[in-house]
Amino acid sequence: MKSSLSGILVVALAAVPLACNPFAPDQSVVLEVQNLDAPATISPGAQLTVVLTVTTGGCTVFDHIAVLRGPSGVQLAAIGVNTAKGKTNYSCPADIRSDPHSYTLDPPFESPFKVQVNRPTSPPLVATVLVE
């Protein structure tokens, strides 16, 4: 019994430094999106799947797609993590790449339905989908 409790204590103490540090800088960033692929039309009641071509690499990695939806449209943004943010003397590799990430929206949709992707340094990408 004593040895099992000691083992649990050792594991718990080892896990503490790996836990999320609430005092660490927020490393979240909005990533650049090169392309937005969306169908021109969908049928009523169908799901809508869009594909964002997201630029990552160096010290940035993709985390998720943020979504703000209304009845006649949706705004999307690719959110990532910059591991160098808040650090000094930190070098990043030069491996820039573009990766597709899809997002599926459930109906209902008004027609036309506007899909907008917000980007940090470029104008938004916009696609209009007709529901017919």
Short description:
By secondary structure, this protein is mainly beta. The chain contains one helix and nine strands. The N and C termini lie far apart (67 Å).
How would you describe the overall organization of this protein?
By secondary structure, the protein is mainly β. The chain has one domain. It has one helix and nine strands. Strands 1, 3, 5, 6, 8 and 9 form a six-stranded mixed β-sheet that branches. Strands 2-4-7 form a three-stranded antiparallel β-sheet, with no helix packed on it. A hairpin with a 7-residue loop joins strand 8 and strand 9 (125-131). The model is unreliable at 4-18 (pLDDT under 50).
Whole-number tally of structural domains: 1
- Overall pLDDT confidence: 86
Number of strands: 9
Estimate the helix proportion, in percent. Answer: 10-25%
Low-confidence stretches: 4-18
Which word captures the global form?
elongated
Strand content: over 45%
Order of helices and strands: HEEEEEEEEE
Q: In this structure, how is the largest beta sheet organized?
A: 6 strands, mixed
Estimated structural class: mainly beta
CA-based gyration radius: 21 Å
Question: What's the N-to-C terminus distance?
Answer: 67 Å
By DSSP (H or I, 4+ residues per run), the number of helices equals 1
